[in-house]
Design brief:
Blueprint lengths: L46 E5 L2 E5 L6 E4 L10 E2 L2 H11 L18 H12 L4 E4 L6 H11 L8 E5 L5 H12 E2 L3 E2 L2 H8 L5 E5 L6 H9 L4 E6 L13 E4 L5 H12 L5 H14 L3 H19 L20 H4 L8 H5 L2 H6 L3 H12 L10 H6 L6 H7 L3 E4 L2 E4 L3 H7 L6 H16 L6 H6 L1 H9 L9 H18 L3 H18 L2 H17 L3 H17 L3 H18 L32 H10 L1 H12 L4 H17 L4 H24 L1 H6 L58 E4 L5 E3 L14 E3 L5 E3 L26 H6 L21
Parallel strand pairs: 1-8, 5-10, 5-11, 6-9, 9-10
Antiparallel strand pairs: 1-2, 2-3, 4-7, 12-13, 14-15, 16-17
C-alpha cells in the first residue's frame, strides 16, 4: 500500500522518484544506446477495491491488506446498465471467433416444440431445467431461446456459464452483468439485496449443482426467470421445487441424415446414407456425433483428391468397389468404421496439422481446457498456431464454455486413449511457466487473467501433487503470480482455488515463505467473505511461519489483519488477556499479604513449590478459617491479589484447590489436636512433642544424636540464638527445649530441634550480617504473665507426634539438615 498516495494504483510505484506512480512518463532515452546498463524493474500490480465494509489492497509482495473502508471512500450505489451496455458486455465476454473460413450455420432441427415451450414458460416467469445428455445440442437451443426472449424482462437476457461455478459465483456474475460497479464486490448481505431487485431472463449453461444450492439461487432472485441447461448426472432439484422439467432427446433418423448433409454441404451417397443410419442407431441421434461424422466425410473428400496430405499412402484402398472410376470419382477412400464414427476424435486429430495436434495435447494435459488462441504460438512454438483453433472448431472437437473453449464431450477420454496424454506432465509444466510469466506481467489486466482462470487453475491442478522434480515449484510460481490478478479481477472463486493449490504445492516443495503468503491470503479472503474463525486460523498460521523465517513486513501485515478479525468478531485482541467475568482485578501490592496466624503450613509450602502461589494461598485460606473472620478475610485478600497477577496461574489454582480439599482437612485436624499442648505449655512446639527426648531409644532421622551440630545449620536446632548480651542458649540433649535469655519485649527465645518446623511462638529466622541466625519477628510474641523465665513443664506422652501424623516427612517446610560425618551428628 502506498502510504503517501491513497488513490487506486493498478501497476504499483515507479522507481523514478518518491511519490511517483507508474502512470507517469519516463524521461526519453538515448536512441543510440537504449538499454545498455539499464534494466526495467519489475512492477507489482497493486489494486485497491471495496468488498462490503472493507477496503482491500491487493499487494502481491507481502500479502493483501484489509481495513475498514474510510468514510470518504464508500462506493456509490451501483448503477443499472443500459441495453447497449449489456450488449457490449455480452459481445466482450463471448468466446472469440476462430480464425479461418467461417463454419457453416447449422439449422435447429426437431427443436421447434421445445423452443416454443421454453419461451412460453419463461414469459410467464417460470424457471425451467433443460436436461439432456452431453452432445444433445443444449447450447444451440439456448442460443435460439435467448434470442426469442430478448424483450421479455426489464434487464434483458443474461448469459452465464455454470462450468466449475458455485451458487455464490453465479450470483456475483449476475450482479456484474446487470449492475455497473467497478472494483466493488458486495458482501453476502449486500449481494442478496442487489440481486433481489434484478428482473432478467437468465440463461445458464452447464449447470453443475442441484438440490439445496439450486434452491438458494432461486430464492435469492425472485424477479428472475432461469433457464438451466444440465446433464442427467447432475443432482436433481428438491422435492418441493417449482422448477419445470424439460428433457431434450436426440434427433430422429431423417433429421440426423439432414444435419450430416448440412455439415458436408452436399448430398450423401447410398453408402454414406447407410453408414449414417448405423451411426444414428449407435449414438441415439446425438447431434454432436453427426457434426463430427460430417467432419470425417469432409476429410475423406479432401483425401480423395490429395491422399498424401490426408492419410498418406495407407489411405488408398487396395481394392476399389465395382464400377468405381478413379478419374471421375477420385481415389477410393473407404468410409470410417462404425467404431470410428462413434468415437471419431483420434481419427479426426490424425488428419489435422501439427500445431492443431499439439494444441490438443496441451488441452488433454490441462484436463480439457483449451488455452486462448493468443497463447498458442508461445505454447506450441509456431507463429501461426493460433489458426489451429479454427481447425478444431470446424471438426466439432470444441464446445464454448463462457468466454473460452474447451474440448467437446467425450473428446478428452478418446484422445487420452489414443496416446495424447503421454507427455501431459511436461506440457502442464510448460503451460504453468508460460501462464506465470503472463499473469505477472504489468501489461496484462486482471480481467484478462480472470477470463483465462480455468486454464490457469487446470495447469496448477495437474502439477499438485507432483512426483517429478520441479512440478510443485512451477505450481507455486504460477499461483503466486495469478492469485493477485484473480483477486483484483473479482473472480474470487478461482482466487480461492489458486490459493489452496499454491499452499499445498508450497508445503510439498518446502517453500515456507510462499506457504505463509498463501495462508495470509486465505485469511484475508475468509475475512472478506464473512468467516472470521477460518480467517483467524489462517492468519495465525501465517504469522507464526513468517516469524520463524524473520519476515517482519509480512508478519506486521498479518497482525494488522488479525487485529481487524478480533475487532469485528468481538474476541480478544492478539496478545491481550482479559480478566474473568466474576473476578475483579486487584492491583498488585507492594508486599505479599501474609496470614496473621502462625507460619505457613508444610502442605502450603509444598504446593507453592509444585503448583505455584495460588495453590499455596488456597491452602492458607482453608487454615485461616479456623482462626477467625479477620484471618479468613486476609487470606481471601491474598487470594484475590494472587489471582490478579496473571491468568496463567488459573490452571495451577484448579489443581491446587483439588489437592487442598484433601490435604487441608488433614492439616486442620493436626493443628486442632496440638492446640491444647501449645496453650498449656508455651515452650513446647506443635511439631515436636515435649517428651520426645524421654524415650531415649528413638534416634532422629537426620543422623546420630551425639556430637555437636554443624555451625552452618540454618534450621535453628544446631546453633543457639544469641541474645542481646551475646549469650546463647545451650542445646539440650534430653529433647526439652532450653530457654534462653528473654527478648527485649519480654518474650522468651527458644531453639527449635533439627528437622522440625518453627512453632507459632518462634518467628522465622534469617541469616544475619555475621552469618548467624537472627530473629525476624513477623508477629508480636505473647507476653507471659510472670516476669521470670518460664520453666519448661514435662507433658505426658498422651498426644501423638503431630509432625509425623499431620504432614509427614515428605511435606515438611524445608528438607532436614543433613549430618556431616566430619563435624558430628546433629542435635535431636
Amino acid at each position: 500500500m502506498d502510504p503517501t498516495h491513497r488513490g487506486p494504483e493498478e501497476y504499483g510505484r515507479d522507481n523514478d522518484g518518491i511519490g511517483e506512480t507508474a502512470g507517469r512518463r519516463r524521461p526519453p532515452r538515448d536512441p543510440l544506446a537504449p538499454d545498455f546498463g539499464q534494466q526495467t524493474p519489475q512492477q507489482a500490480r497493486v489494486v485497491r477495491l471495496i468488498s462490503g465494509d472493507y477496503l482491500l489492497t491487493v499487494n502481491p509482495v507481502d500479502g493483501s491488506e484489509v481495513e475498514l473502508c474510510p468514510p470518504g471512500e464508500q462506493p456509490a450505489p451501483p448503477a443499472r446498465r443500459t441495453a447497449a451496455e449489456r450488449a457490449d458486455r455480452e459481445r466482450a465476454t463471448a468466446p472469440p471467433v476462430p480464425p479461418g473460413p467461417p463454419a457453416p450455420q447449422l439449422p435447429l432441427l426437431e427443436r421447434a416444440e421445445e423452443r416454443e415451450r421454453l419461451v412460453r414458460l419463461l414469459a410467464r416467469g417460470r424457471s425451467v431445467r433443460l436436461t439432456g445428455p452431453a452432445g444433445s445440442g443444449r447450447t444451440t437451443l439456448l442460443n435460439a431461446v435467448a434470442a426469442d426472449c430478448a424483450d421479455l424482462a426489464p434487464d434483458g437476457v443474461v448469459r452465464l456459464c455454470g462450468h466449475k461455478r458455485t451458487a455464490t459465483d453465479l450470483l456475483h456474475g449476475l450482479f456484474e452483468a446487470v449492475r455497473d460497479a467497478p472494483l466493488h464486490r458486495p458482501d453476502h448481505a449486500g449481494l442478496l439485496a442487489e440481486v433481489r431487485g434484478i428482473g432478467a431472463v437468465v440463461v445458464l449453461d452447464d449447470l453443475e449443482f442441484g438440490g439445496a444450492a439450486l434452491e438458494e439461487l432461486l430464492d435469492a432472485t425472485p424477479e428472475c426467470a432461469f433457464l438451466f441447461a444440465t446433464t442427467p448426472d447432475v443432482a436433481a432439484p428438491t422435492a418441493d421445487s417449482y422448477l419445470e422439467e424439460v428433457f431434450l432427446p436426440g434427433l430422429g433418423r431423417g433429421s440426423s441424415i439432414e444435419l450430416l448433409e448440412q455439415v458436408v454441404e452436399r448430398p450423401l451417397t447410398d453408402a454414406e446414407a447407410n453408414w449414417a443410419g448405423d451411426l444414428w442407431f449407435e449414438s441415439e441421434g446425438l447431434p454432436l456425433r453427426f457434426v463430427q461424422a460430417g467432419a470425417l466425410l469432409r476429410q475423406r473428400d479432401m483425401a480423395r483428391s490429395d491422399p498424401e496430405a490426408y492419410g498418406g499412402p495407407d489411405a488408398r484402398s487396395a481394392e476399389a468397389p465395382f464400377g468405381h472410376d478413379e478419374d471421375t470419382d477420385g481415389v477410393h477412400i473407404p468410409l470410417p468404421s462404425l467404431g470410428e464414427g462413434a468415437a471419431p476424435a483420434a481419427l479426426l486429430a490424425s488428419r489435422l496439422s501439427g500445431p492443431a495436434r499439439d494444441t490438443l495435447r496441451f488441452a488433454v494435459a490441462l484436463g480439457g481446457e483449451v488455452p486462448h488462441q493468443a497463447h498458442l504460438p508461445a505454447l506450441v512454438g509456431d507463429t501461426h498456431a493460433d489458426a489451429a483453433l479454427g481447425e478444431l472448431a470446424g471438426c466439432g472437437l470444441l464446445s464454448p464454455a463462457g468466454p473460452r473453449y474447451r474440448l467437446a464431450a467425450g473428446v478428452t477420454a478418446q484422445l487420452a486413449a489414443a496416446g495424447y496424454d503421454e507427455d501431459s506432465t511436461d506440457r502442464a509444466r510448460t503451460a504453468a511457466r508460460h501462464y506465470a510469466w503472463w499473469a505477472g506481467h504489468p501489461s496484462v489486466t486482471p480481467a484478462r487473467v480472470a477470463a483465462e482462470a480455468d486454464a490457469v487453475i487446470a495447469a496448477m491442478a495437474q502439477l499438485v501433487p507432483g512426483d517429478e522434480a520441479g512440478q510443485t515449484s512451477a505450481a507455486v510460481l504460477l499461483a503466486r503470480s495469478a492469485a493477485p490478478a484473480l483477486a483484483a479481477g473479482l473472480h474470487w472463486g478461482a482466487w480461492e482455488r489458486a490459493l489452496r493449490l499454491g499452499q499445498e504445492a508450497a508445503r510439498i516443495a518446502g517453500e515456507v515463505a510462499e506457504e505463509a503468503y498463501f495462508h495470509h491470503e486465505l485469511g484475508v479472503l475468509a475475512l472478506c467473505t464473512g468467516n472470521p474463525d477460518r480467517a483467524r486460523a489462517e492468519l495465525e498460521t501465517s504469522i507464526s511461519m513468517r516469524g520463524a523465517i524473520a519476515d517482519k513486513s509480512g508478519a506486521v501485515a498479518g497482525r494488522r489483519a488479525l487485529a481487524l478479525v478480533a475487532d469485528r468478531s468481538g474476541g480478544p485482541l492478539p496478545g491481550v488477556l482479559t480478566p474473568v467475568a466474576d473476578e475483579v482485578p486487584v492491583p498488585r501490592p507492594a508486599e505479599p499479604v501474609r496470614p496473621p496466624v502462625g507460619p505457613t503450613p508444610p502442605v502450603a509450602q509444598t504446593l507453592s513449590r509444585s503448583y505455584g502461589d495460588v495453590a499455596a494461598t488456597d491452602v492458607t485460606a482453608v487454615m485461616a478459617k479456623q482462626s477467625g473472620p479477620g484471618a479468613a478475610a486476609a487470606a481471601r485478600g491474598g487470594r484475590l491479589a494472587m489471582l490478579g497477577r496473571a491468568r496463567r496461574n488459573l490452571v495451577a489454582a484448579c489443581a491446587g484447590v483439588l489437592l487442598a480439599g484433601v490435604l487441608g482437612t488433614v492439616v486442620v485436624l493436626g493443628l486442632t489436636s496440638g492446640d491444647g499442648d501449645a496453650q498449656g505449655n508455651p515452650g513446647v512446639t506443635t511439631e515436636e512433642p515435649a517428651d520426645r527426648g524421654d524415650s531415649g531409644d528413638e534416634a532422629p532421622a537426620d543422623g546420630p544424636t551425639d556430637g555437636p551440630a554443624p555451625a552452618d545449620t540454618a534450621s535453628g536446632g544446631g546453633e543457639a540464638t544469641p541474645g542481646p548480651s551475646g549469650s546463647e542458649a545451650a542445646p539440650s540433649g534430653s529433647g526439652t527445649p532450653s530457654t534462653g535469655p528473654t527478648e527485649p519485649g519480654g518474650a522468651p527465645s527458644s531453639s527449635t530441634p533439627s528437622g522440625g518446623t518453627p512453632s507459632s511462638t518462634r518467628p522465622p529466622t534469617s541469616p544475619g550480617p555475621t552469618g548467624s541466625a537472627t530473629t525476624e519477628p513477623s508477629s508480636p510474641a505473647p507476653t507471659p504473665t510472670d516476669t521470670g523465665s518460664p520453666t519448661p513443664t514435662e507433658t505426658e506422652p498422651s498426644s501423638p507426634d503431630t509432625s509425623d501424623s499431620a504432614s509427614g516427612p515428605s511435606l515438611s517446610s524445608s528438607p532436614p539438615a543433613a549430618a556431616d560425618a566430619d563435624s558430628g551428628p546433629a542435635v535431636a
